[in-house]
Amino acid sequence: ERALTLLRPEGRLGVITPHKLMVTQAGRTLRRLITANRLLEEVVHFGVKQVFGRHVDNYTCILVLDRRGRNVVRVERPGPLEAWRYGEPGITVEIPSATLGEDNWQFVDVETRALFERVRAAFPDRLGQLAEIFVGAQTSADPIYIFVGVAEDANTVTLRWNGHDWPIERDILLPCLHDALLFAYARPQRNAWMIFPYEMVAGRTRTVARLIQPADMARRFPGCLAYLEARREELDRRHVAGGPAGERQFYQFGRSQSLTKFNSPKIILPILSVEPRYAYDDANIVVTGGGNGPYYMIRPRPGVAISNYYMLAVLNHPLSEAFVRTNTSPFRGGYYSHGKQFIENLPVPIAAEVQRTEIEERVATLIAAIDELAATRIPHERTRKEREVAALRSEIENRMSAVFELSEADMHTVQAVPVPA
User: Fold this and answer.
1) What is the pLDDT of residues 222-278, one digit of tens each?
2) What is the mean pLDDT of residues 11-38?
3) Going by C-beta distance under 8 Å and a sequence separation of 6 or more, which residues neighbour residue 37?
4) CA-based torsion, 204, 289, 178, 235: positive or negative
5) Measuring CA to CA, which residue among 159, 112, 185 is closest to residue 370?
6) 206 vs 139: which has the higher pLDDT
7) Measured in whole angstroms, how far is the alpha carbon of residue 315 from the centre of its chain?
8) Model-level pTM?
9) Averaged pLDDT, 49-74
10) Which terminus of the chain is less hemmed in, N or C, by CB atoms within 10 Å?
11) Which helix (H) or strand (E) holds 148?
12) Can you list the alpha helix ranges (DSSP code H) found in 123-221?
């Protein structure tokens, strides 16, 4: 912004900067400044290439701005950096300046842009309007609260720490995902336990999570309290927020939001992935995560005409993923973000009730088939189940394509949208 004020009327500016400014909410004002007078001349988008060396994790781009204004923006994505440095051009497209504004910048070809605009106009409802998109539990000390048991009995799960075994009462534990891989439509499988020192209490208008107080902890969960007391010094070092002042204790979570949202069916998604991995949970599994993950959860808002099953079909459809791919932050290894800011504006078509019911029935059947596949050990039965799962996924995709009013040519356009690089 300062550099622009120093330019002559015919001056030009080149700057290297993190490319997150193109897609984050925080970059909106800067995007408005650049595009209001069509100052953007050229973008060199490095994607996940590390232009400052292998040990410096910066995701950058070069912006060239022209005070005189430009009607067309040249966007280049370099190939191998060494070749590009010595003059080999990258893949280049030109887009009209008028198509860029304060909203996220999407550098896509004419066909893809036209398809996206058509879909957005035809289906004005957005995911964030129809569904809650919420973060996981924020303990501010996951290694203390989350563990894999070394032994179990009917009443306790044993945690090993500091060379000692600590039996933790089952009734204060919740099933948890910890660095677990999720798959589209599949039920996540618990791979850890979380100490959850809260209990759900029904209020007048909503359920609240109430922190279990020390006297109650000592009576009901003495093993857990002994363990938490042993780690009190670490817990006291956290910055803790939330909860009634008179009920705060050293073992409460760092943040109190989302604590009541685990105990009903929901969609769980990993923030970073290389494909759509929206999974279905009806086992009250807890996940962790703040604004940067590792997980988010989605659930239809009360009163809307869509279900979790229907949303799974929308979100796992290639069109929704194409929208994400053109509007996200890329990371190394081919991963890209599915954070709230990149999915909340996805268009969601509200199909007719008969169509919705048919899609929901197929999704329910698919989830059950995936469960059966996971439990099958006989090779020929696995092959049969794999074919059934593939056929169901294809049928659901085709039905959603019809709801989105996509032709075969449209689907070719969708499938050609590249993974961010």
Assistant:
1) 999 999 999 999 999 998 876 666 678 999 999 887 788 888 899 999 999 999 999
2) 91
3) 69
4) negative
5) 185
6) 139
7) 11
8) 0.82
9) 89
10) N
11) none
12) 127-130, 142-145, 214-220
Give Cβ neighbours of residue 65 (< 8 Å, ≥ 6 apart): 4, 12, 13, 14, 15, 34, 39, 40, 41
- Indicate the helix (H) or strand (E) that contains 409: helix 408-415
pLDDT in tens, 323-344: 999 888 878 777 889 999 899 9
Pairwise CA distance, residues 309 & 316, whole Å: 11
| pLDDT averaged over every residue in the chain | 92
Residues contacting 356, CB < 8 A, separation 6+: 305, 306, 307, 310, 350
| Segments in 25-133 forming alpha helices (H) | 28-35, 81-85, 110-122, 127-130
- DSSP annotation of 272 reads E
How far is Cα 349 from Cα 394, in angstroms, rounded to an integer? Answer: 19
Amino acid code (one letter) for 147 = F
**Residue 365: how many CB atoms within 10 A of its CB?**
15
Tokens 């998604």 sit at which residue? 269
Read off the tokens for 261. 């949202």
How are beta strands 272-273 and 336-337 bridged, if at all? antiparallel
Residue with tokens 């954070």: 339
